[in-house]
């Protein structure tokens, strides 16, 4: 995962990232996903959204293939 990357040289705020994630999670089966994303993120172009999605997929693949290790969280004692 590369947190230094930005999409199409655009900055994504935490709020925009959350809107992106929520829209993707709730509308992923929608045939007009890009249209839904554009409505939810009016300040982002379709290219920005596509780039952000592609980076997300790259990050997921890197985690799944073990390229990026999962954090070593301390055990929580009850």
Automatic annotation (TrEMBL):
SUPFAM superfamilies: Homeodomain-like. InterPro entries: Homeodomain-like_sf, RADIALIS-like, SANT/Myb. It comes from the Eukaryota. Keywords: Nucleus, Transcription, Transcription regulation. PANTHER family: MYB FAMILY TRANSCRIPTION FACTOR-RELATED, MYB-LIKE DOMAIN-CONTAINING PROTEIN. This is Myb-like domain-containing protein. It comes from Solanum tuberosum.
């Amino acid at each position: 995962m590369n947190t230094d990357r930005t999409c199409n040289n655009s900055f994504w705020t935490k709020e925009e990232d959350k809107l992106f994630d929520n829209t993707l999670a709730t509308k992923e089966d929608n045939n007009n996903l890009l249209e839904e994303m554009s409505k939810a993120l009016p300040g982002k172009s379709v290219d920005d959204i596509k780039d952000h999605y592609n980076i997300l997929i790259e990050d997921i693949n890197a985690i799944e293939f073990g390229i990026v290790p999962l954090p070593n969280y301390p055990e929580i004692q009850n």
